[in-house]
Hints:
Elements: H1 16-19, H2 27-32, E1 42-46, E2 53-59, H3 76-79, H4 88-94, H5 103-108, H6 118-121, H7 126-129, E3 139-140
Parallel strand pairs: 2-3
Antiparallel strand pairs: 1-2
Amino acid sequence: MARRPKSDLGLPDERFWETKTLDDMSRAQWERLCDGCGKCCLLKLEDADTSETYFTDVACKLLDPETCRCSDYARRKMFVPDCIVLTPETLEQVAHWLPPTCAYRLLSEGRPLYDWHPLISGDPDSVHRSGASCAHRVISEEAIADEDLPERIVDWANIDPDA
């Protein structure tokens, strides 16, 4: 029998993302919103004239390319000083850098989570099976020169299935 997630009060908090605002979520609930796609850890380029964001297939040196998780999440700022810590306060400033499938971005836009999101499917690997993650699609930033980034722009990382 599957275990229900518990809230900070020990009560079931199934579908908490539908009843709470991002500001009202506990830290644990906030962290559980991450679907594990890894796309937020991709290096991005921004057009200075249009402010359009382009995703590359080049990942932060801390991203595990198989699991799409940070290899040192707790200490990531120590190794990657410009890593953005996503909070309800920083979300508005960086939402355009998040993929359109990101739970944080979706909820901030009043949109529902996708069926493959682990909170919906109950399976942390559903994001990978759906093709919504960057698993096995990226190279480390340590393997490429900055001037080569424009050649690494990809479409798959910034596709909104609902658009």
